[in-house]
Every structure is written in C-alpha cells, then in structure tokens.
C-alpha cells in the first residue's frame, strides 16, 4: 500500500496512466467497435410488390437476412424467420392485406408517418414502409402510369382479432427488421463479391507500384544530394521538403485538368490518352510520396560513417562495389522505412483515387462509399472493408518492424564525410533528373495557381483572367478559413502537448509495462486509415451521453489520434538531445518533477516543440480521409469545401482552386520559414525514427 | 517561452473572433443539386433577404437522406432541397407537413403536404463530340445497345449506380419497364458504372466515356457554353423526374426555413428556373425553357419499381457480369 502511494506521488506516473486510458478509449475502442460491427448485420426483411388489382408478389432480390419466403401465390405469401413460420399475408382486396403472425403474440403498432408503421410482435420489431410509385401522374402520356388514389398505410383490427393492413394499391411494401444479429458470414460475403475483391487487388497494386516508383525517385535523389556537392543543393532540398506536404486533392485534380481525356495538354498535343484509371492513381500518388522517401533516406545516407566506405575502398573495392556492398546495406533501414511510409500513404490515400478514377474500386473509396450508403444503419460492408484495411496495414507494419529489428545498424562515429565534387557529366545528368522530378512534383501547384486566376465556365477552364474566384471564395467561405485555423490550432496544441508528455515518459521514465505499453499504443494510428478511424469514432460517439458527432470536437479527436505518433517522435528526437544531467541538477537543488520539466526540459526543447507543432499543424490542415467522413456544417474545414467543390458536375472549380491556393499559402509560408530558419530539413528525422 | 505562449493565445483569439460571427443563425439546406441550380436561386434569394444566410450541404441523394435519418433526434438541416417525391413519401417521418401558399399554382402536389414539387427534368443521352462524330450518334436506346462494342472501346456507356443516384435509378427502371431486365443486362455489358450522377455527367464531358445520360438542363447549358457535348433525346425511351423539397421535422430554424420554402415556390424563382437554370417549372404560369423540346413529343418513362428492387437486380447483374 505504502509502495503504491509512493508511486502515485510521482506526477508522471499519474499522467502516464491517464493518457494510457485516454488513448485506449480513443484508439482501441473505435477499432473494437468496427470489428463488432463487421461481425453483425441487420436481421433483414423483404418487400411485397402489390398491383392495382390486388395481386401480390415478393421479388426474390429483396428477401434478405434471416427472412425467407416459403410459399408464394398470387394472393398469399408465407414468410419464415429463421426456421420458423413467421407471417402469413393474404390479399383480401386491392389495398388491403390480411396479416397473421404465427407466434400468436400481441401486435403493438406505432404510426410514424402516412407511409410508415412500426410493429412490435413479441421481441421482433418490424418497420413497414410503403413506396408508392404510381400515386400521381403529372403529365399525360407518361407511359405505364396509372393514377392511384393515395391511401395511408394503416393497421386495423376487426372484432375477431384479425389484422388488416391498408395501403395504396400498386405500392411496394417493405418490411424491415433492423435488430442486429451475429453474422460471421459477412467476411465470406465480402470475399466472394468480385467488386470487393477487385478493390483489395487494386489497393495492393497501387500500394506496391507506388512505393517502388516513389522509392526509386526518392533514393536516387537522396543518394546524389547526400554525397556530392551539387549546385543549388540547399534549394533543391528545401523544395522537396515543401513538396512533402501538399493540399488535398491537388495532385489528382491538377493532373486531371492537364491530362484528362479532355485535358489541356491532351488537347494541345492531340494525345489519345487519359490519366484517368489505375495508372493515373499510381502516377499521382508516386509524386505525392517520393518526398517522404527522399527526406528519410537522405537522413540515412548522411548518417553513414564515412570511415566504413574508406575501409572498403582501401581494401580495393571500386566505387560500384562499395555502393552495393556498403552504402546501400547501411542505408537499407532508412530506405525501407521510407518505402514503408510511401506504401502506407498510398494504401490509405482517399482523395487521389476518388477524383481520378470514378469507377475504379479501391479500398479507401469503397469503405467511404459503403459507409455513406449505410449511415444510420449497421455499417456492415464498410466495417468488413475497414477490418481488411487494418489487417493489411498491420501485416506490412509487422514485416517492416521485424526487418528493422533484424537489421539495425548504429554508427558510433559522428564525423560526416565531406561532400565530393561531382564530375561534369554527373553534374549535368543529376541536374536534368532533378529538374524533371521537381517539375513533376510542382506541376499540380503551378496548374492550380494559374487556374485560380482563370474564369471557369460550366466546369471548364477558359483563358479569361479574373479575380472572381478569390472574391467568391472569400465572400462565401471566409468563415471556413477561420474554422480551419481554429480546429487546426486546437488540435495541434493538444497533440503536441500530449506528444511531449508521452515522449518524456518514453525517453526518461522506465516504468514497468507502462512505458512499453505507451510506446506500442502510440504506433497504433499507423495501422488505422483515416476513413476507418472516422467510422470508428462515429460508432463510438454517436450516442448520448457523449454525443460528439457533428461537432468540431470529434474532428479535433480524429486529428489528435492521427497525428499523435508524429508529434511524439518529433518530441522524442528533441528530448534525446537534452542531457539528463541538467534535470538531475535541478532536482538535486530541490525542484519538484513538474517544475524541473517546465523550467529545464521544456525550455531546452522549446524550439523543437514549436517546429514539431508547426509540422503537426500542417499535417492536420491537409488531412482529408477522416475529415470527409466526420465533418458536418457549420464545422466545415477548407479541405471539405475543396472536396465538395471538386466533386460536383458543373461545380465551381474556380472556388476550389482559389481555396487550394489559399491553403497552399497557409501551408508553405510556415514551412518555408521553418526550413530556412533552422537551416535543416524537417520531417525526415522524425519520420524515420518512428 | 512566454512569447510563444502569447503568440499562441493571440492566434487562438483571432480564430475565435473570425468564426464567432460565422455560423450562428444560418439556415442549413441539404441538397444533391449542383451549383448550376443553386447559385442562381440563391443569388435572387439573397437579394430579397440579405439577412438570411444559407449554408448548402452537398451530397448524393441517398447519402443526404441517410444523414437526415441519422440526425433525426438532433437535426442539423432545415430544408431538404432535391430528390424525387417518392423518397420523401418513403421517408415521410423525417419531414414536417407544410401547406405551401402557392400550392394551387403547381401542376401536382402532395396530398400529405410532405414534399413540395419544384421542377421537371428529362434525361436525354449526351455524347462527347470529340469522341463521337455527329453521324455516329444514334437516337434510340435499342441502337445504343446494338452498337455497344463500339462504345466500349471508347470507354463504355456511362450509367450512374442506382444505389447512389436517383437519376441512375430512374434511368435503369425506365429502360427496364420500357423493354425488360434482360435488355438492361445487355446494356450493362457495355456500361461503365459511375458512383453517382455527377460522376456520370463529368465522365462524358471530360471524354472519359463517349456517351451516357445527362439531366437536360445541365446538358443544354454545357452545349450552349460550347463544350464538346451534344444531347440527343432517344426516340424510344426517355426518362423524366420531378424533384421536390421539404421542411425537415424539428428544423433548428423553422421560420427562416419557411421563408426559403415559400421562395422556392414563388413565380420569380420559377422564372429563374426556366430562363437561367433551363429546367421545366412545375408552376402552371411559367412556360418551359424554349431550348428544350416539348414533353408531348417524347416517349416518357419514370421509375416503375422500388429503388430496393432496382438496386438489387442491378447489382446482381453486375456481379454475374463480373463488373
């Protein structure tokens, strides 16, 4: 007891325990809810099609779940629930059905609307709706229509206790039982549907090819720029850092303007080509992700101990051999981490395929679409898709972890090799390659910038110069800019504050279990795609007492969970640079742990914390996959406005492009300032050390 | 450290003050209609009622209705604007009956006053003229399907997924009732299914597919704007839809919502509808847009089977075709 009390006097242990609980609640429970939802489905139901002459039938496609039709004639239907007979319906005359429930229990009826009733028969709750298709005709000559007098859907009982349902003749009567039943068969159904299978396949293809392509680009550039003293090295690195953060939808949207079948370039060059399709998705995501690979591998290459290479060379290995046997293996953990980050970004990317390939099936879009279709009902398909995504992501993460554990190198030397002077042809070659890569990476930015000053007519860009887009964007959406700032700021502050705390516990405190558990928990967001997390949060927070759906709080929670790993790693790498002796000195002079932390540690890492917070802020501003599921007006961030405006036919693309440019400014000014001020690349180190 | 904090606090205050005057007191309207319909109407509305601000939330019809259902106990929206009357009837418990003051002037109306009629629009075929030459364009659905392989080579016939689009539901159901579900199966062999009607319109306009269906108002506007599209009214089957609007039950701002609803039925609004938006008005006293053919010349069909049945049959065929 005394021991326990003493433990509790350490404020850090209390902090760790609270955070542990919060993280479990926000990260693990949503996933559990999704898994549960994937294992249940609604009990089902059936539809009765009536005709004006009083004939009834039950289209077999509409019979779902545990309900079955065991007998069907022109005027009689017998319905089974599970293995038991449940309901007999007999058509008495046009507009009236006699209902007989086999269980013999009383039927409670609640009238919900003129066309909706709710039945309670023992434990079964049935919702009955009539869909009247021919209740009116607004013009003569509408083929196949017969005007019907509208009749409310009502249940009546006669003296003998018989139940009669009156309806509009010709209507469709749907009977639905929304109670949930355990159904592990959902997975079987998912994997026997060709459409869903092809979504899984497409996702894997996109992930694999994108990561290979992005790795090739990123590693090649990183190698040359870490080794040779190339002209404009600083600018190139800064530019690639800028490219690592990109406004949502930008790439897909710009490439489509340029290379869609009716795109600007396609028309100009008379190409018979379209970027729309899986090839386009791979192409666009590759350019989005290669900067990540570059930043991480650049770090890896520059931290190789130069003496190892010298040893190899002095033993007679030529440059080529040294490259393959020393440099690449030593940089491999970094390269693979970069590749992993690229693969995961590609795997969960929602915006690019959503815009580039309307008919292509791919997991993040599938989960989003299915969830949007199932809102209010049990999201069965969406949750099965989510579980599939989480499983794939976990497998890839595990593989990456195992590899890193087996092949971990540490250099003890801190000397860095001086940059080598490149020879002429190399210089030219690298310059051309760099120019190509940077052009491709920034084409979307330039395209959107230009089109934001052009007039859009009926969804097509013209060549007339205008400021209208910006005026309209400000007139109509100025408060969304405020909202974006507000949500972004709140989320960043919370994320970085908690991140620093967790990092401190991980770096300094070696609590049994707690530290390890925290460390593992912080990794969890890596395997939960944004769309999936958002669905989990909706399932978790959709009911009182903690009903947060539709508020800004749920967006903040989502951003917090999504970006926590990043802020923890950023803080960790800063903390490692603070020698514990400084804290110990303060403690020995009588400062309490909290005071020590605030006056010594926090002060020493404040620069790093600010830059970490800025990066977190930037990442939050560009977050789309969870935003599009969670946002509801009036809490509509800029990303959501861009999303709405790029998706509609005849939409105001002008406003979308103006908003994108505004967002770009909001992102790149702080990022540029950060890169220039600190004279070092940001992001790579933090990402690589995860 | 202190400086950082003060900067942060100023920043927070700034953002709070920026949004403080924003959302409060705004009308929220859910609508599947594109800006080509909403913008001109809102412009007129804003001139008449400069103090009422409206936030339009865009989504596909089923998505928006699902959202209304999910928010039933705590509605966010005041007005639902768009979608077929049949959906309003089916989801009638989500709406507050309202007797529209202009009811007598509409050619149809809802006996239960759940929905108010707005416009009538036909779905003709739309070709991309960069891909299809004038002489290759066919004017019946039968011929369209007979030439299916030709379209398939160019990207397929675009058709909106009926589970995500009311227009898709109407088109599939109309064709199925004019011909048969077997004929729909033939059609789907050469089809590219798009997730929603907007994606279908865009795919034709952008030349991702050579042909598909379009709402006549958007099609004629694109054609007049000089885009490479041409609309053709098929002689054998043309589908027609009505769209409606309704007052959400428990709307946060019911009085403002009624002002907007009254506006949507007014003669002024319907004149904009006919002249600018190019949709056929439901008002008896507003003539249809001159650019569009009279309805009497077309063989018109509308939904003939419930959405659930159409969607189930459609998905079954797709699965059998391996699409």
Q: Largest sheet of chain B at a glance?
A: 8 strands, mixed
Structural class of chain B: alpha/beta
Q: What is the CA-CA span between the terminal residues of chain A?
A: 37 Å
**Under the CATH scheme, which class of the largest domain in chain A?**
Mainly Alpha
Summarize model confidence as the mean pLDDT of chain A: 84
> Given the structure, what is the number of helices of chain A?
24
Rg over alpha carbons of chain A: 31 Å
- Summarize the amount of helix of chain B as a percent range: 40-55%
- CATH homology superfamily name of the largest domain in chain B: Periplasmic binding protein-like II
**Topology order of chain B in helix (H) and strand (E) letters:** HEHEHEHEEEHHEHHEHEHEEHHEEH
Number of domains of chain A: 4
Distance between the termini of chain B: 60 Å
Quick recap:
The complex is a heterodimer of chains A (690) and B (323). Chain A is α+β, with helices and mostly antiparallel strands. Chain A has helices at residues 2-8, 11-38, 185-191, 194-227, 233-243, 250-259, 264-269, 278-302, 306-314, 319-348, 351-356, 363-374, 380-406, 424-451, 468-508, 514-523, 530-541, 552-575, 580-588, 593-621, 627-630, 638-647, 653-678, 684-688; strands spanning 40-50, 56-57, 64-65, 67-72, 76-81, 84-93, 96-101, 107-113, 116-121, 124-131, 154-157, 163-166, 172-182, 454-457, 460-465.
